[in-house]
Write a structure and sequence with these properties.
The structure is a single chain. This protein is an alpha/beta fold. It has one domain (3-254): FMN-linked oxidoreductases (TIM Barrel), CATH 3.20.20.390. It has helices at residues 3-13, 30-42, 60-70, 103-120, 139-144, 154-166, 186-195, 209-218, 227-230, 242-254; strands spanning 17-22, 47-50, 74-77, 91-97, 123-131, 171-175, 200-203, 222-225. The protein has an eight-stranded parallel barrel with strand order 1-2-3-4-5-6-7-8, surrounded by six helices. α6 packs parallel to α7 and α7 runs parallel beside α8 (209-218).
Amino acid sequence: MSWLQDLIRDQQEGRKRLAALLDPDDLPTGRDWTRFIKGLSESPITDIFIGGSLLTSRNVKDILQSLRAHYDGRVTLFPGSPEQVTPGADAVLFLSLISSRNPDLLIGRHVESGMRIREMGMDVVPTGYMLIGDGPLTTAAYMSNSLPIPSAKKEIAVATAVAGEMLGLQAIFMDAGSGANQCVSPSTIRAVRDAVRCPIIVGGGIRDAAGVEAAWQAGADLVVIGQAIESRPFQLEWIPQPESFRAKAKARKLV
């Protein structure tokens, strides 16, 4: 079963997923790296995403090779550029920045990397990527040379997600951006959830268990946390259990 098929099955059965986003430039090194990966393996994290909007000191290939030596779970590339696509992952999010009007990120970079990705033989997940937020400017918005969808304009987010699904994109990723002051609001997630059938991924600005569970409750199938883990790499006990959330959600329906 492919990564996407697995996510769709989890969506249909009401199971939630939780990904740790690892930016190679912001990770521990040496023995701390091994300790960090051991902690992630023992945490409720179900997936690891690797990538970043701007990498200056470390590359995805080295991190991926080291990660594979210590981690047995699902690893997916979340590339900020074609150079970040490297063999060894289970899947790659083939991101089309549908909230943008920048043609380079709608199709240009895909042409550059498409044949190389096919030769690698990994699962490809055509993903509609939407930046949502009001500032300050995040790295993702600056590097993509695009304006996010304003938080208060959820009707634009809905129309954009629907158009992406109609174009054949098989997942929608709503992102406030790394280091965002606010996460994507539950009302926006819920509005998009009501409008599309495909899996929804949500990330950016989520700093605690309450934020993760609020996104799940609103309809996110997979929640991504990055900076909250980077800032506390050895304090992961706060991360919520997807199965515990599912059990609580079932109990609420029975009441």
